[in-house]
Amino acid sequence: MGTKGAPGAKSSGGAKSGHGISRRGLLIGAAVTAAGTAVLAREQLEHAWWRLPGVDKPRKPGEVDFARAQWISASSANWRKADRPDDYTVDRVVIHVTQGSYRSAVKVFQDPGHGAAAHYVVRKDGHVTQMIRELDVAFHAGNRSYNERSVGIEHEGFVDRPQDFTAAMYGASARLTAAICGRYGIPVDRKHIIGHVEVPGTDHTDPGKHWDWDRYLKLVRAAGKR
Q: Where are the annotated segments for Disordered (predicted)?
């Protein structure tokens, strides 16, 4: 077994193994593998900075990312700490509909057993509540990659009741989305502002056929120019 040659004979740096790979190649391959492992480890560390003792980023209780929002904290079981956009690029806004009242949405997002929550909830009267900081990953999209790259906005109401989507709600939500897009350089279009139904792998249908996308995007663009 192994390479052929006289017993005890020394092999040169270019001698090949039984599989036709030189020792130099093996050394280079090992170095590349080590470098790749180091890059992966660094990326994992960047995405998990908060797990290191004493490295928790400073956060002010009740601080909001959208000046017009009220802060009500979601259960910490329904999101995870991050440092977006430094560790994850934010390039999507995902539009949801609560399939219930504003109060019920806030209540379930505060329930640690629910397993999901969005960054914001917009009420029919236009009131905006923030429940998770934008720098953190909310469990709202049902897709890990989309959770990490997006901000989720819930809207009070039901998908089959167009009357729930009031002018006040559209206006407030559009101002919120315009601010988010401005912060992260997100294009205002249907590729980057999407419905929950458009997230890969989802089984949700919101915001449904009654959500007026043309109206909404016009309002977002107008709000972004102010």
A: 1-20
Q: What is the pLDDT of residues 73-95, one digit of tens each?
A: 999 999 999 999 999 999 999 99
Residue type, position 98, single letter: T
Pairing of strands 193-195, 92-97: parallel
- What are the angstrom distances between the C-alpha of 2 and each of 8, 10, 105, 128? 13, 14, 67, 71
**Rounded to whole angstroms, what are the CA distances from 3 to 17, 19, 33, 203?**
6, 9, 25, 58
Burial class (CB in 10 A: 0-12, 13-18, 19+), 41: exposed
Strand segments (E) across 44-118 = 69-71, 79-80, 92-97
Task: State both tokens at 123.
Answer: 């009420």
Q: How far apart are CA 94 and CA 202, in angstroms?
A: 12
pLDDT tens across 124-150, in order? 999 999 999 999 999 999 999 999 999
pTM above 0.85, yes or no: no
- Three-point CA angle 82, 84, 86, nearest 5°: 110
For the chain, the distance separating the N- and C-terminal CA atoms, rounded to the nearest angstrom, is 77
Give which of 189, 88, 204 is closest to 135, Cα–Cα. Answer: 88
| Residue count of the chain | 226
Eight-state DSSP code of residue 87: S
Contact in structure between 224 and 180 (CB atoms under 8 Å): no
Backbone angles phi, psi at 151, to 5 degrees: -110, 130
